[in-house]
Amino acid sequence: MDSESMGPGTVRPGGRTARVRAAVLRAAGDALVEQGFDRLDLADIARRAEVGKTTVYRRWGTVPVVVADLLADMAEQSLPRTETGSLPGDLRANARLVRRTLSDPRQGPLFKAVIAAATCDARTAEALRRFYDIRVEEWAPCVRQAVERGEIPEGTDAHEVVRAVSAPLYYRLLTGVGPLRESDADRAADAAAAAARAGVYVRRGAS
Fold it and tell me: Do residue 92 and residue 29 come from a single domain?
């Protein structure tokens, strides 16, 4: 079975297939930022990408599938975690990466548009959940390592700690309370680390 007949994002295609996918996803991101989810159109995406409409319709079929593949590609392109040797350092590295992403002139508006789309389309919502599951799991080992070093209690929920780091930054992005500063990222990381040390994220029933 070749990559064209498989679900989008299930493989990392090469050659012309990769170029077509990259062009279409770039065009879809541009259109999503400019027009919003409700006005996305496969024919317009094909025009922007300079790709035949037949190719776009055959491979993706619907707008939600394109958006889901866009999120899959964003997850593939995300930078790996940084290990500093301490939980506060690792969480600050995570927070600063999130801050840089959300402050980017393209990525910030794109995330806002995708989150807005997820509120009205179940397939996009599921794709967004998968995207964040991948990113949270990428950084969860830094919390598990902190448990092993004795920095935080046994039974700490690594995923909840990582989510707690980025949540304040997304709040600032979505409410428009001001530009995201590095100090905001550090504050979010330090708060999550302090809460983890205090046992806030220990799972109930954990021994």
Answer: no
Per-residue pLDDT of the chain (207 residues; tens, 9 = 90+): 233 333 344 444 468 889 999 999 999 999 999 998 989 999 999 999 999 999 999 999 999 999 999 998 888 887 788 899 999 999 999 999 999 999 999 999 999 999 999 998 999 999 999 999 999 999 999 999 999 999 999 999 999 999 999 999 999 999 988 889 999 999 999 999 999 999 999 998 755
Q: Which domain holds residue 50?
A: 3-63
| Residue 138 counted as domain residue | yes
Phi then psi for residue 202, to 5 deg, are -70, 130
Q: What is the CATH number of the domain that holds 153?
A: 1.10.357.10
Say whether both 153 and 57 belong to one domain. no
37 plus 93 within the same structural domain:
no
- The closest alpha carbon to 166, from 187, 146, 148, 149, belongs to 187
CB 173 within 8 A of CB 111: yes
Q: What are phi and psi of 11, to 5 degrees?
A: -135, 165
Helix (H) or strand (E) holding 193: helix 182-197
CA 101 to chain CA centroid, Å, is: 9
- The Cα–Cα gap between 159 and 141 comes to 9
